[in-house]
Amino acid sequence: MKKFLMLAGAAVFAWFASPAMAAETVTGEVVDLACYLPHPEMKGSGHRKCAETCAKKGMPLGILTDDKQVYLLLEDHENPKPYEQAKAKAAEKITVEGDKAAQGGLQAIVVESVK
């Protein structure tokens, strides 16, 4: 868990430091990464309550696309409301629009809007 939180922190740092970002959309299921990464079967409506609990505790969230890509969801510090909307959609399929970032194999998207 400690390593994962360090990776999440590195992703946030990379978001601020990386000039290679472009606004894009990503569609997929909101997953709580603390459960999904070590146990990929922990997703979908059967995992909703756990994912909601993890989200409320501040655990990192991601979006799992249909082609099995995972993006760490990052809060836009100037506009946190869309990230809060994404948190409320744990285990649901949503579309996120924002700037993508990648560093050291970790993919992320800054949540600027949620549909």
Shape: globular
Query: What is the level 1 CATH name?
Result: Mainly Beta
Mean pLDDT: 87
- Main sheet attributes: strand count, strand direction, barrel closure: 5 strands, mixed, barrel
Counting DSSP E segments of at least 2 residues, the number of strands comes to 6
Helix-strand pattern? HEHHEEHEEE
Based on CA atoms alone, the radius of gyration comes out at 13 Å
| Count of discrete alpha- or pi-helical segments spanning 4 or more residues | 4
CATH architect. name:
Beta Barrel
Give a structural overview.
- The chain is of the alpha+beta class and 115 residues long.
- The protein has one domain (2-114): OB fold (Dihydrolipoamide Acetyltransferase, E2P) (Beta Barrel), CATH 2.40.50.
- 31% of the residues lie in helices and 35% in strands.
- The chain has 4 helices and 6 strands.
- The protein has helices at residues 2-17, 33-36, 48-56, 81-87, and strands at 22-32, 61-64, 70-75, 93-103, 106-111, 113-114.
- It is globular.
- The protein starts with a helix and ends with a strand.
Q: What is the topological layout?
A:
Blueprint: H1 2-17, E1 22-32, H2 33-36, H3 48-56, E2 61-64, E3 70-75, H4 81-87, E4 93-103, E5 106-111, E6 113-114
Parallel strand pairs: 3-5
Antiparallel strand pairs: 1-2, 1-4, 2-3, 4-5, 4-6
